[in-house]
Amino acid sequence: MKEGKKLTGLQEIRTAYNGLETLYQTYLPKVDPILVHDLLVRENVFSGRNGKI
Hints:
This protein has about 55 residues and is mainly alpha-helical. It is about 75% helix and about 0% strand. It has helices at about 1-25, 35-45. It starts with a helix and ends in a 7-residue tail after the last helix.
């Protein structure tokens, strides 16, 4: 049963990632998605959230 939950969790992560990638392409088509991710992580670190998104 745990294996099924792991796969479900992994599928949820993949779905969220695909949705995020779609948003990047829609709103920031000329920007490298890796740079946007890096910016968001750094913003969280500097705001005191320790890099947790």
